[in-house]
Amino acid sequence: MTISFSLAASVALHDNYHRIHLPPVPLPLPSRPSPPSSVSWSRRLTIVRFTCGFSDMDNNASSSLFPLHRCKTLHLVRHAQGIHNVEGEKDYKAYLSTELFDAHLTPLGWDQVDNLRKHVHACGLARKIDLVITSPLLRTMQTAAGVFGGESYADGVSAPPLMVANAGNSRRPAISSLNCPPLMAVEYCREHLGVHPCDKRRSISEYRHLFPAIDFSLIENNEDILWKADIREANEEVAARGMKFINWLWTRKEKEIAIVTHSGFLFHTLNMFGNDCHPVIKKEISKQGYHGIRVSSNQVLPGLEPITKASSLSSVPIQMSLQALN
């Protein structure tokens, strides 16, 4: 849980870190140097204190200072339960089945989508999101449209539907693109590539018919040339692709971005962070589920509550900070 209250500075407490927002009102510069405890900055900054909670790490606690305008907040969402998850839990070899090609969501998966949608609207997050980025696979786009899309689509509405009725055997009504953030499909955040048919995408021309209002302009090839039937992408390659994705995010102007992706992609990408943390913390970062992880340019500050098993679905906030340039 995050607790916020108003003092001279607004302080947010979350498990293993403290975040302090200094007031945005410009303050006069002191006539002589002030001690470090004085609030003397003339613009809004974010202070992050690394407080891991381990006694043997107390002497290693450190502080980082970042201008707030150089921060992005990412809301990570692992797709809801797909048919491949159900079959793969019964028999791992099922992942090799061509019947699971571009796996769609199960009825339970759609229930998870509905529950997360209620949450993002109830907490006000739906109004804050500037952009939704989704992996271009059926299960992630179904999740993205269901969670962040408009209300049910009705004939006579001028805007194209975000998702057409019964897309991917969903037995769901069409979803409107009205009053929702833009959705964009990006290949960088796909699941492990190769071998497993469930991770192979359809043609973009087919997706455009199923999801008319999703932006596919950044995907260069209509057919899936990245997926190889006999070569499975190595974990290190997934991690490297994830870092390219993170670097690409810095080219975007949006500050609050939701990313609908896959557990394997999240696991290997986030595993690239936290090398300067205690091994126990590093291990927590590498788990299948994440909650309240904060990423800056040089450290990861985790909240240690695992999520995202096949029976649950949640969004995960991450704040990326880039140090001020000279």
UniProtKB/TrEMBL annotation:
Q: Which family is this sequence assigned to? A: Belongs to the phosphoglycerate mutase family.
Determine the domain of life of the protein's source.
Eukaryota
Mention one GO molecular function: phosphatase activity
This entry carries the following GO cellular component terms, namely:
cytoplasm
Pfam families in alphabetical order = His_Phos_1
InterPro entries documented for this protein: His_Pase_superF_clade-1, His_PPase_superfam, PGM_Phosphatase
What is the source species? Phoenix dactylifera
> Any idea what this protein is called?
Phosphoglycerate mutase-like protein 1 isoform X2
Q: What does this protein do?
A: May play a role in carbohydrates metabolism.
